[in-house]
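Changelog-adjacent note: as of this version, every example in the card shows the full chain rather than a window. The one below runs 394 residues end to end.
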Amino acid sequence: MGLEIRPAREEEGDEFKHVAGMALATSPEGSGIPPEFTLCVFEDGKLATAYGVLPLTMRFNGEGVPVAGVAAVGTLPIYRRRGYLRKVITKHLALLHEQGERAIAILWAAWAAIYQRYGYAVVSTQNSYDVAPRYLEFSLPQPITGTFREISDDELALLDDLYQKFIADRTGYIHRRRAQWESGQLAPPPTGSSLTKVVYQEGDEPLGYVIYTQESMEGPGHPRLTIRDLTWLTVPAYRAVWNYLANMDEVSNIIWRLLPTDDPLPHLLLEPGMLNIASGDGIMGRIIDVERALPQRPYLEEGTLTFEITDNLCPWNQGRWKLETSTEGSSISRAREEAQLVMPISTLAMLVFGHISASEAVRMGRLDVNENSALPMWDKVMRTKYCPFCADDF
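Full-length structure tokens:
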């Protein structure tokens, strides 16, 4: 058996789409990753495992950080149980370490258990709403002072500017290229549906937008409204957008499938239970290079943290580290002193993304403590301004 791990070639693009589509039970056309952004396993010249790697920029507590977006991963059934995914992930992690450009990898997982074997951790949670417009009533009503206008297809720059301002201080959101807008939030609506883009402004200043589709249901009944994207720069803008949606008398229900856990709406409505909130795993994250990754994010507090990492796939991460942080920047070095905390690389990812605190990790049994008095400092230093969240399927 001849085994090779390499990017797919131009002439193998259709084969990559086939393998990714078959493995993920999706349309092959939906796996159109350029060959140069792949790293695949070939057995006797046949593509067995598809693996896409997109160069992305992610917001990390208010800083744009280059990350590797892993996507379109799958092995054809006839090649499974041969360890091919482990081989390609191990190869990819080593390549990223050698290149030194992207110290963090992120992905969406159909099954988190698959990737937790390789040092990934769930680093965000996503919520969803399903609410009838009549229940969008605020407990403390306030007047709406701005206006709405529907925008045209050639105003992408306006949407992107509002989006960039909205995500500026957040963690997990990715910078969108035109292609991502056009294949995601602005993709053509399903047959029988309409796509609407509305901007809220006060005077001439745009302060938020909502992009949604209206889909007619089979049989009698009102259409359903599905939010694709919603951003706001001020609290009045947020309330105004929901007031706008509350006036959708012609729709049966409003669905928003992908939103952060710290969205304000449940704390503002008279009947928050009618949002029918559901939760699920968000993105998974993997710290590839501790030394490069940790100084890339801003920290809100000054502190000195010492820790010991176990990492069976990335031996360069193993051992004790000292992270010194301030609001001006941070530095990391190998530590000689005893570590305050001892943890696997997956737990460190959860802390760095701000998904859980060190004190919570202790209660969960995700790390060991050598110095209990250090926990309050860890909690303060690793806190992020907003809950981590990614709004895009990449």
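Structural remarks: Residues 289-382 form a domain with the Nonspecific Lipid-transfer Protein; Chain A fold (CATH 3.30.1050.10).
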